[in-house]
Amino acid sequence: MNISNVEQLDELLSTPTEKVVETMQQCPGDIVLLGIGGKMGPTLGRMVVRATKQAGIDRRVIGVSRFSNESLRDQLNDWGIETIAGDLLNPDFVNSLPDAPNVIAMAAMKFGTTGNEHLTWAMNTFLPSLICQKYCDSRIAAFSTGNVYSLVSAAGRGSKETDTLAPVGEYAMSALGRERTYQYFCSTRQTPTCLIRLNYATELRYGVLIDLALQVFNEQPIDVSMGHVNVIWQGDANAMSICALADAGVPAFAINVSGPEILKIRSVCETFADAFGKQLHVVGAESPDALLNDGSIGHARYGLPRVSFDQMVPLIVDWIQNERPLLGKPTHFESRTGVF
Description:
This protein has helices at residues 6-13, 18-26, 41-54, 70-78, 91-96, 117-134, 170-189, 208-217, 234-243, 265-276, 296-302, 309-321, and strands spanning 31-34, 61-65, 82-85, 102-105, 139-145, 152-153, 193-198, 201-202, 222-223, 228-229, 232-233, 253-257, 263-264, 282-283, 289-290. The protein is α/β, with parallel strands linked by helices. The strands form five sheets. The chain has a seven-stranded parallel beta sheet with strand order 3-2-1-4-5-7-12, sandwiched between helices. A two-stranded antiparallel ribbon has the order 6-15. Strands 8-11 form a two-stranded parallel sheet. Helix 3 (41-54) links the parallel strand 1 and strand 2. The two termini are 34 Å apart.
């Protein structure tokens, strides 16, 4: 596999699996993607369009965002995604959106929570209530996060969907509030809902592995206190998240979206150091617990990820060494206090 430019990367990230095509057949009608302007939204939306065409279905795919970046809007239009610009925290705007039987809700807030807690809670709890009232007769797949779980033993397989939720920090608490809001409307309005608990999507422009690879490449000290992590190639996260739409139900169905491996941060950094020919600078000691998800149920339902950690490494090394575009959005996965 060789990826030398953004166009090739977007093509790979948006390639649908057979299960995604099957999901498009199981979920007839138009699809609205709320918050499509984020990191995952564009390629996820493009995957929906490509899978729809492969399924031989005629539907509108509508992406909603503020679209502060007009070039992104143009790109989405070129991919066959209709775009609508506006403020999703404005109830009148949300109510003006087209009706659709399928909704994928991605709009949320994580980074910048500290000092801006009120906006975080508005995005993560008030906005879901607007979405649910507008789309009470639709099927909703709503993005959540593995942060709703507590830290768990790194010697295990990670948190399961049935585990007690114990969020740490203001962002994680608001994420639980988001889930409870969706669950409330699912229960009272009988709106089929799926909650997608993601840990952590990675591609070549951002993600946990990019954070670590850049630190290694720049020979910066790396704190390994959060000593273990799950990652999943964004193309696979896109596919699993789309497939989750077919599992929306009453009561709400929760699914972990993560990779099959629990990666040791020290070992990951050693791998990058060898590949870059750089000196590794590690500080701290691994804690016995970490924020980890067990993604096995999702793998069984939607298929194993197509891109493994071993396949990602040479792609990331080549991308960074050749100074290709980065998003400049660190994940802060290493936070053990829930401060983002």
